[in-house]
Amino acid sequence: MTVAHNLVDPDTIRARFCAALSAMYRREVPLYADLLTLVDAVNARTGHADADEPERHGAIRVGTAAELAMMARAFAVLGMEPVGYYDLAPAGVPVHSTAFRPVTDAALAANPFRVFCSLLRLDLIADAALREEVAAILARRQIFRPEAIALITRAEAQGGLDDADADAFVAALLETFRWHAEATVDSATYRRLSDAHRLIADIVAFKGPHINHLTPRTHDIDAAQAAMEAAGIDAKAMIEGPPARTVPVLLRQTSFRALTEPVRFTDQTGDEQGRHTARFGEIEQRGAALTRKGRALYDALLAQALDGDRGVPYAQRLASAFAAFPDDLATLVEQGLIHVRRRGDAIEPIVYEDFLPVSAAGIFQSNLAGEARHDYAGASSQAEFEAALGRAVRDPFALYAAIEAESMGTHAPA
Ligand code: OOG
Ligand code: NI
Fold it and tell me: Per-residue pLDDT tens for 229-264?
């Protein structure tokens, strides 16, 4: 086996990749650059001006088990592991997902960049002929550059990459996330895919899983939402997730609607153009990670707000439902609703690093405006997802518990 010298820390490779991805997406989607400027201004006003760029997450959608498995190996080089299983079928989206992210306290502090990654569920395409066509189209593409695959293999063999290889890997992997206006299918095929589900067309009709949004973090999402509206950005009507609170919990998100962009199908000639709508911009505010008990309460209250009297505005239903969720640190801790860490003599909430299936579904849906609702009956299948991934996903609750226990100087429960 090769004796490796001067291996670069995966946290460093992740930071380089995140910066390169952000720069690429800024060039590809100028509205994203505007969003970053806006978030910087809001963060500065609310006294959280970081010299650094705001941290962020991204999202991609892959088509096959092989693509997902290679993606897991690529992210491992960046120090990111699959955490959690999200079934989006109940929300009318034919995918299931995980979040690739750093898992230790130190790695999260170094750079918390994470990627929500969805896998198409072929079994949810009802039409057998279309299902076969989709499988055939996907089988023809290779979303990774040969250099990227070679460097993944090298990283696995020697336990990491040296500085030059790390840079080469970041550059090669970035290509997988790039936008391609040239579709791999003709316009009739695109239409068939899109008629089955707009997301199916987005996953299947292109050369690769273009990054579909990158989300900076703000400390005041209500201010960010107001700033988006003031700037004339086509923002969603409301913020998803829990209501505004004294002790923020989980994740609150808003976004600008997906852009309609020119693409070219294989049958188009001359100046002919098609259109595709996929990429959008999102902002988020992160709060405390909830324990299983806290999460159960959150889910119950959210369901109560969603099922409530339609005559009452949603924001009001949400606020009244969440009156039952304690909103001071002492009570939250006493009742075992949130994860905390000890820092010096004080305790503070541990930040939620994951995603919310309901919010995620809302985000997907808001970018499928005008589309008929889909009902997918297929059972959730974490086992199938993990078989495709080539490994089990990590349990997010266990990770937060471990970070809490470590800060308290105790051991995490098994
Ligand atoms: C991913 C949507 C999930 C979030 O912030 O909840 C997500 C997608 O649209 O591919 O990014
Ligand atoms: Ni997102």
Answer: 888 888 887 888 999 999 999 999 988 878 899 999
Identity (one letter) of the amino acid at 63?
Answer: G
DSSP letter (8 states) at residue 8: P
Within-domain flag for 162: yes
Q: Is 324 exposed, middle or buried (0-12, 13-18, 19+ CB in 10 A)?
A: exposed
Tokens, residue 204: 């299947």
Count of structural domains, the chain = 1
Q: For residue 295, is it within any domain?
A: no
Asked whether the whole model's pTM tops 0.85, one would answer yes
Tell me if 256 sits within 8 A of 31, measured CB to CB.
Answer: yes
Which CATH number do you get for residue 15? 3.10.180.80
Domain contains 226: yes
Phi-psi region of 159 (alpha: psi -120 to 50; beta: other; left: phi over 0): left
Task: Kindly report the protein residue whose alpha carbon is nearest to atom 2 of ligand 1.
Answer: 360
How far is the centre of ligand 1, averaged over its atoms, from the C-alpha of 57 (Å)? 9
Ligand 2 centroid distance, CA of 57 (Å): 7
Q: Kindly give the pairing relationship between strand 260-263 and strand 340-343.
A: unpaired
Cα dihedral across residues 174, 178, 183, 189: positive or negative: positive
Residue 56 belongs to what domain range?
10-236+258-283+353-391
Residue 58 lies in a domain: yes
- Three-state secondary-structure class, residue 86: strand
Question: At 218, is the secondary structure helix, strand, or coil?
Answer: coil
Residues with CB under 5 A from ligand 2 (ion): 215, 282
